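Pilot study result, target chain (206 residues):
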Amino acid sequence: MSSKSIKYGPRMLLVLAALGLSLVTGCASTGPGPEQTASTADPAAQRRYQQALDAIREGDVEKAEAMLESLILDYPGLDGPRLNLAILFAADSREPEARALVDEVLAHDPDDAVAWNQLGILERRAGEFNAAAEAYGRALELSPGYGLAHRNLGVLLDLYMGQPDKALVHYERYLELDGPDPEVERWVTELEMRLGLPVTSRVAER
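Predicted structure:
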């Protein structure tokens, strides 16, 4: 099913979060963190970009895709629109289209941590777990405080690579950076119990 027929509704951001995805709020700069929300792009481009983000949050994915595609055509040097369009494609299981956009961003800026995180998601979904781990690792080399990349790497290590001890480290780091997150806290509890470790008080109280 194409996203042209999908209306995610007001839970769109929750859908993205469940997939390990998050919107890129900066139009020109695409690294994680609030410092990236201010764009160096043309004010008109930034205004259009914000309108596209608003359309995503409102659940109008068809409108958002059209606006992002238009921005890419009019401002080919901006990476933010490409990454958010890739995120929408990935959320709709359109991996080849998402991968092409992520590859374009990395060709333009190989030090883009968000793009490496998105690449990790796509590699994991393709069953390329070692490549996914490398991509998440690269994202964290570039941005050690990138909480979502820690979460995604934790999921990969926990569920797909059989390395619960390493996964626990990344889950805990994610919670330090971006928490609280009841779902991840539950995962931490389960791993601590499985590994025979003391259950942390923060999680045990839940």
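One observation from the pilot: DSSP finds eleven helices and no strands in the chain. A full batch analysis is planned for the follow-on phase.
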